[in-house]
Amino acid sequence: RWHNPQLHQFTIAETGFGTGLNFLCAAALWQQAKASGRLPAAAHLHFVSTERFPLAREDLAHSLDLRPQPDWLQQGLLHQYPAPVRGNHQLLFPEAGITLSLWLEDAVTALSALDGRVDAWFLDGFAPARNPELWQPALFQAVGQLSVTGTTVATFTAAGLVRRGLQAVGFSLEKVPGFGTKREMLRGVYRPDPATRRLSWPPQDKPWFRCAPAATAPGPVAVVGAGLAGANVARSLAQRGWSVSVFERHDVIASGGSGNPTGITFTKLSVHDTPQNRFYQAAYLHACRRLRQLLVDAGIAPGEDWDFNGVLRLAFDAKEAQAQAELSAQQYWPDELLEPLTAAQIQQRLGLETTLDGVLLKGGGWVNPARLCSALLDHPRIQVFTGAAVGQLQRRKDHWWLDDRGPFTAVVLANALACRQFDQTRHLPLKPVRGQVTYVPASAASRHLRHAINYRGYINPAREGFHCVGATFNPRLTDPELRAGDHRWNWDQLQATLPALARQLQPPTAEQCAGRVGFRCQTPDYLPVIGPAPDIARYHADYQDLSKGFLKREFPVGPNLPGLFVSCAHGSRGITSGCLAAEIVASYLTGEPQAVDREVLGAVHPARFLIRRLIRGQAAPPEEEHQA
Fold first, then answer.
1. For 392-425, what is each residue's pLDDT tens digit?
2. What is the pTM of this model?
3. Could you tell me which residues come within 8 angstroms of residue 245 by beta carbon, excluding any fewer than 6 positions away?
4. Burial annotation 304-325 (CB, 10 A radius, 16+ → b, else e)
């Protein structure tokens, strides 16, 4: 199947990562197929693996030394190997066109929560008698739901329980000679009976947030917006072989909410395992891995425009101190990622004089968003058009047009509040939140600050002669002009939290102080909007019965507008969440397994507000009625 010049996407899934040997063999073979010319240069391999008991990094390194691999593969795996945090961790090997989705979770739980399609299965070879927790009906059901006609399966075990379980979900199987001392093994092909293919789901499975698995061949795609959200989407699609046209209404990229001189890769720290917290934890870990490598590969040395040497979160009051103590005790954020520091340790190790304790969030840091966007957009398959406002979106003959620009196979709206200008997305409840940052000139002493510091506000290391101090949060203000009162608030927070650092700086005159006003794009539930744009008329038709309660019936999967996607409302966390959002959008478009579990997908889905209104029996807003 890999000796195919038309192949653009292939997904393998396995049920036990172990030392990574199956992945390493598949990745090396994929690269050989590309080098031989049998595969297109832009073809993409997505390898999904689950592991409930992951090796420590040191043990993995020892295993790799026993079976040496090419440097790009061995070092890439070790450098990106994740901390022991439950959930999915995406490791990227862009030079070979490979994504490894490593789920640190038991196989049944992970695969049952996964969306997407799989082309080949590598199933654990241990027999049911030795691994009864794996071989459950739920595993076979998940394997069947993620498979498409022609999907293959192979496993070292030939046990009757495994054979019957795979046959029950649609696989045609045969016994073949095993390897080594193994007498027999199983392999097969997915050939389901169309009459038994499941197309509807009970309400508890939230089918309105599901998508029918599809694999769209790479083609021309338009991304509206050249800020952090749009630049990340453009890069993710370009690396998968798509020809990307980015349209930015301003004359320069990163002009809107991405226009501050510096920003922080930071996220909410919590011990609660909620969809919101899982999303932001996964987004933070993904951003730290991806952005560091991207900036290094672009030849941008740390120190001038970025540094991911950790973010210091100070315990600025009793409530924050208690929350940090709980974080350290619960290990939801393990010590490998989150290190508690006393005030004395902060001064000794970070050179910051303070009376407050805190935590160092490792892997994160600060970055100039414009430089980051520029690095993301620097790809031969990306073309950027600035000063290119888009007025209307139209669907003509299975393609999208942006005014007179087109045709495009797909469109991704990553233009923040301006998403609401289009008929197809006018229903989204996006709201502006005004924020103001203050530019404080650096002193000789303050230039020694090397870490981003977060408290009620934040201060970043000096860049181009000044520190960026911020930021206010005013959802009810629409004034785009600088306000003296906001400068005072920023300075007062710094002075109250870090008086020694404030004394090193020249107190700014609020009336003459430099700074910047930006408007964050936010939603009522403070989660971004990521995924396919819903077909509102069909949603109303298919799910109108939800207002009568969760009836004892099944519902079809969500009817979405073909080829139209959204990534917006990242608020003040766009540096952190934009990377993972891009992978989610790319997976929807290509049919790859998703980067997050199904519950998280529903939490950020563009149709979630529409579904909530339908459940409550609320009338559609005028803009929805207009579209319908």
1. 999 998 999 999 999 999 999 999 999 999 999 9
2. 0.95
3. 220, 221, 222, 223, 383, 385, 405, 408
4. ebbbbbbbbbbbbeeebeebbe
